[in-house]
Amino acid sequence: MIYQLDDGRIVGCGESEHGCSHSKSEVVRLANTRGKRGRGMSIYLGNLSVEQIEERTGITLTDEDREYLKKHRQEAVNDTPIADGAWHCFDIPFIIMTGNKATAEFYRDMLSTYDWSECKECLQIGWQRKGGDTEGAERSRKK
Question: Most CB atoms closer than 10 Å: which of 47, 89, 106, 110?
Answer without folding.
Answer: 89
